[in-house]
Design goal:
Layout: E1 2-6, H1 10-25, E2 39-44, H2 49-60, H3 63-68, E3 73-78, H4 84-93, E4 99-100, H5 109-119, E5 123-124, E6 146-150, E7 152-153, H6 164-168, E8 172-173, H7 176-188, E9 193-197, H8 214-221, E10 229-233, H9 242-250, E11 257-259, H10 267-272, H11 279-292, E12 297-304, H12 311-324, E13 328-333, H13 351-374, E14 380-388, E15 394-399, E16 404-408, E17 417-426, E18 429-434
Parallel strand pairs: 1-2, 2-3, 3-4, 4-5, 6-9, 9-10, 11-12, 12-13, 16-18
Antiparallel strand pairs: 7-8, 14-15, 14-17, 15-16, 17-18
Helix pairs in contact: 9-11, 12-13
Length: about 450
């Protein structure tokens, strides 16, 4: 039996689904409990220091399992395994880790396992970067109604804080035909929500034999007949075009929600981050989307305490948050990543000051979002029922605009569409009652 745990972004979660598919192909069963496993794989994330520490902690906790079951194999893969310093540390200090392979090693996993078993000793691969696009990998998806669909891999943007271009390699797009075939097979299999993935989906298509842009890809995919919705992430503001927004406005399959990470509201900080847009350009794009897409909602990622961020620059971020009126924010305190440009920048602000800024940002976001969410009461919306709600006897449904509503209902509705009348809200969570089932 194999246990696979993925950390980090959806790209990594999708890689974890492929790892499970590959393992099932060579005869493994999949379990969700480490105690039952004779192969444990941690598919890791390196984006912040905290993510890495969690992995080291969780790997350390496996030592006792290995003592109980010497046949157990423990493996580390994913983005952390793309860093030489991590592989060296595992080699030196974690003797009970048997396997290490990077993000491009999934298709070779059967060979890696065979090699480990044949040699009878550890197989720790130093990072390699193949920059490959491997098609037709077996996959075991976590859900039967929501699917991740990568359209491109890697990143060439080198935002100065970010490790991703170093661990995920150069940007490369899948051929539109391969994306379309996978998309059609998902719709045919009854998937209701398909999320297209890439670190910067708006630069899709560069370098293809016949270049194609992201809006064209969306139009191509959405010609597929069926009752489904499409989401995508992540859009980089520097490459998000009016054409993309017009496409979202014109197509009913595309959710009226845009995740558009701004990172900071200060032009000095944005430039130091190498983001290639100003707050004015960002706001112009937001205004255009608000004008063209009635009811559109936005979410964003924000980094607090980038090296040298002043109080005034931070306040510009607060201003921008208010101006956009995001429904959802993913907020991070800057984490220094060795090898990136920002790691060399002077960073005089204390952690306590950064944590205080984070608190203020979260409070501002609540003040912006909660009244807007509350004001939705009275509307009837179509939602995809994702699972059980926190309150016993309720379900959680996701709206087109990415908000979640909790409403009374039975588990048999999970994975289907439902019409829900919104009756109120608690913080960011809407509450409602089912009207009919679509
Ligand atoms: N490609 C996506 C995001 C990938 S990482 C994009 O460009 O938007 C997800 C988020 O993690 C980033 O948007 C950023 O807000 C955050 N992040 C990345 N590196 C970080 C770091 N070193 N410290 C803190 N947050 C970071
Ligand atoms: Fe990182 Fe920037 Fe690439 Fe996103 S676009 S993955 S933040 S380098
Ligand atoms: Fe983390 Fe790798 Fe994704 S570093 S955020 S899992 S691309």
């Amino acid at each position: 039996m194999a246990y696979v745990h993925s950390y980090g972004c959806q790209q990594n979660v999708n890689d974890g689904e492929k790892i499970r598919g590959v393992l099932m192909d060579v005869g493994y069963g999949i379990c969700d409990n480490v105690e039952q496993a004779d192969l444990i794989l941690f598919n890791t994330c390196a984006v912040r220091e905290h993510a890495e520490q969690r992995v080291f902690g969780n790997v350390g906790a496996l030592k006792r399992l290995k003592e109980k079951n010497p046949r157990l194999m423990i493996g580390i893969c994913g983005c952390m395994a793309q860093q030489k310093s991590v592989v060296d540390k595992l080699r030196a200090s974690y003797p009970y880790v048997d396997l290490v392979f990077g993000v491009d090693g999934i298709d070779r996993l059967p060979a890696i396992l065979a090699e480990r078993i044949r040699r009878g000793k550890r197989y720790l691969q130093d990072p390699v970067q193949r920059d490959a696009v491997v098609e037709e990998m077996p996959i075991r998806r976590d859900s039967g109604f929501r699917a991740w669909l990568p359209i491109m891999y890697g990143c060439d943007n080198f935002c100065t804080y970010c490790i991703v271009p170093y661990v995920r390699g150069r940007e490369r797009s899948r051929e539109p035909q391969a994306v379309l075939e996978e998309f059609q097979s998902l719709v045919a299999a009854g998937y209701k929500e398909i999320t297209l993935l890439g670190q910067n989906v708006n630069s899709y298509g560069k370098g293809l034999a016949e270049p194609m842009d992201f809006a064209d890809l969306l139009n191509l995919l959405c010609q597929t007949p069926g009752d489904y919705k499409v989401r995508f992430m992540t859009s980089h503001p520097k490459d998000a075009s009016h054409k993309l927004i017009d496409t979202i406005a014109a197509n009913d399959h595309l959710c009226k929600h845009i995740h558009l990470p701004v990172q900071s509201g200060s032009d000095r900080v944005l430039s130091a981050m190498n983001r290639h847009y100003t707050s004015a350009q960002y706001l112009e794009l937001i205004d255009y989307a608000k004008e063209k897409i009635p009811g559109v909602t936005f979410s964003s990622d924000i980094i607090v305490g980038f090296p040298g961020e002043t109080e005034e620059e931070f306040e510009q971020t607060l201003e921008l948050v208010k101006q956009v009126g995001y429904m959802q924010l993913f907020t991070f305190i800057y984490s220094r990543r060795g090898g990136t440009k920002a790691a060399e920048m002077p960073d005089p602000t204390t952690h306590a000051e950064k944590a205080a800024r984070m608190e203020r940002l979260l409070r501002t976001q609540d003040e912006v979002a909660f009244p807007r969410i509350a004001a939705m009461a009275g509307q009837t919306v179509r939602v995809l029922v994702e699972g059980c709600g926190r309150t016993p006897g309720t379900l959680n449904g996701r709206l087109d605009n990415n908000l979640v509503v909790e409403f009374p209902g039975g588990e048999e509705l999970i994975g289907s569409w439902a019409d829900v009348e919104l009756t109120g809200s608690r913080a960011a969570l809407l509450t409602g009652r089912a009207v009919t089932n679509a």
